[in-house]
């Protein structure tokens, strides 16, 4: 199976190399702004913009005649070209969003300001390679990486991967390269453990509670990456806010704060990757809830805890990783009462406070952890077939009102009548 995936490496760069990286990022920003100005001028006169190809041609003429652009050759020509492509895409997507041809509302592209936009640039042609603890990039040459590139190198060597492009960007004080790679992955015809299933409840107190077929309970407490680092974050923010604007101390405080934020993100992403990989490898069918992440983030008391766990990310990772393992991700309907239903007798509690961490059933006397009870209910859906298949799961089954959960971003609200019938079917099967 052919998949497009990213391999991202942190770069270890010398001061000279860092200047070259910053110069390329500046060139990309300049090219974007130059092209945006050219497009705006033309649009005023002729009512249309330049395409990426036209911009490239225009740039090639201008850079040779305009003496103030004499520095262009210090950076790879690819960087300018890719900035024009980015602007071309941004303009086209802006028009599509205006016409309602795409989801979301996009604003008109804006000029980029140093210090206020991400330092980033891209190569799509030229020498892009990796070996050991180095990567080779056009114009920049060989750059040391912070970690070994062996996973990608091995794939490049045996011909199961091809690099399409390389995006270099800065997060806090560290530069990263992200290779977009076309990978030929062995497509297993069946999952390694056919028939295995797990119901997964994503929670705030526990990152993840899973109940596997056979009743095994898996509990992942979650790194609470942000919570433990929150006091430090508050202190760093305070120092930053109190420093004189424009001073050297302010800049130093900002850098420390950015580093701390980046660290939090890394810890969270790492945990999520490990957990989702393990689940997708071990179970053929993974059932999760369709969480309304945006809606939950609107709850001020819970927002930080939820954002800290990265529910949206967990779901996205499970979607593609189950696909790689020939498994299926099932997403229960958003209104499926997984927490409110007794996993033993099926009786439902209409009102279940979020503070009730233990589920006590008034009917059969079941006492179970709230998350465990919810996960057991989700596991039942794996067998009942009353659920939504993921992108790799094949056809949309009847009774789903044509909703494809894999395409629906977490947080978008389905329209009335589109809510699916998974909940009704699931209760009917009991
Ligand atoms: Zn019960």
TrEMBL record:
GO molecular function per UniProt: endonuclease activity
Compositional bias segments (type: Low complexity): 409-430
Domain of life: Bacteria
InterPro entries noted in UniProt: Cas12f1-like_TNB, RNA-guided_DNA_endonuclease, Transposase, Transposase_put_HTH
Cas12f1-like TNB domain residues: 311-378
Domain (Transposase putative helix-turn-helix) ranges: 1-48
Residue span, Probable transposase IS891/IS1136/IS1341 domain: 181-299
Signal sequence range: none
Pfam families xref list: Cas12f1-like_TNB, HTH_OrfB_IS605, OrfB_IS605
The entry's keywords: DNA recombination, DNA-binding, Endonuclease, Hydrolase, Metal-binding, Nuclease, Transposition, Zinc
Residue ranges, annotated region (Disordered): 387-430
Family statement: In the C-terminal section; belongs to the transposase 35 family.
Name of this chain's protein: IS607 family element RNA-guided endonuclease TnpB
Annotated organism of origin: Actinomadura meridiana
This protein's encoding gene: tnpB_3
């Amino acid at each position: 199976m052919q998949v497009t995936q990213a391999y991202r490496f942190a770069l270890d760069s010398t001061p000279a190399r860092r200047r070259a990286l910053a110069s390329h990022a500046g060139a990309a920003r300049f090219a974007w702004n130059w092209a945006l100005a050219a497009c705006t001028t033309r649009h005023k006169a002729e009512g249309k913009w330049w395409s990426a190809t036209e911009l490239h041609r225009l740039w090639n003429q201008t850079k040779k005649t305009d003496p103030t652009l004499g520095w262009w050759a210090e950076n790879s020509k690819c960087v300018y070209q890719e900035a024009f492509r980015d602007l071309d895409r941004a303009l086209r997507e802006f028009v599509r969003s205006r016409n309602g041809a795409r989801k979301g509302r996009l604003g008109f592209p804006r000029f980029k300001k140093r210090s206020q936009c991400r330092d980033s640039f891209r190569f799509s042609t030229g020498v892009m390679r990796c070996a050991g603890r180095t990567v080779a990039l056009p114009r920049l040459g060989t750059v040391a990486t912070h970690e070994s590139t062996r996973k990608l190198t091995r794939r490049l060597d045996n011909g199961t991967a091809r690099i399409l492009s390389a995006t270099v960007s800065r997060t806090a004080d560290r530069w990263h390269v992200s290779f977009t790679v076309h990978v030929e992955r062995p497509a297993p015809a069946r999952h390694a453990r056919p028939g295995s299933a797990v119901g997964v409840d994503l929670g705030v107190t526990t990152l993840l509670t899973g109940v596997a077929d056979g009743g095994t309970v898996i509990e992942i407490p979650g790194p609470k990456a942000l919570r433990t680092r929150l006091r430090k974050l508050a202190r760093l923010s305070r120092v930053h806010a109190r420093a004189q604007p424009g001073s050297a101390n302010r800049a130093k405080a900002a850098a420390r704060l950015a580093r701390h934020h980046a660290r939090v993100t890394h810890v969270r992403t790492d945990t999520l990757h490990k957990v989702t990989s393990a689940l997708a490898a071990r179970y053929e069918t993974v059932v999760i809830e369709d969480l309304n992440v945006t809606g939950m983030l609107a709850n001020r008391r819970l927002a930080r805890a939820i954002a800290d766990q990265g529910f949206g990310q967990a779901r996205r990772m499970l979607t593609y990783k189950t696909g790689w393992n020939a498994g299926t991700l099932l997403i229960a309907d958003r209104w499926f009462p997984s927490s409110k239903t007794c996993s033993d007798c099926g009786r439902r509690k209409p009102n279940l406070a979020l503070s009730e961490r233990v589920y006590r059933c008034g009917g059969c006397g079941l006492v179970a952890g709230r998350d465990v009870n919810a996960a057991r209910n989700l596991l039942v859906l794996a067998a009942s077939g009353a659920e939504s298949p993921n992108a790799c799961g094949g056809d949309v089954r009847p009774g789903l009102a044509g909703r494809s959960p894999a395409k629906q971003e977490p947080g978008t609200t389905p329209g009335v009548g589109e809510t699916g019938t998974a909940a009704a079917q699931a209760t009917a099967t009991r």
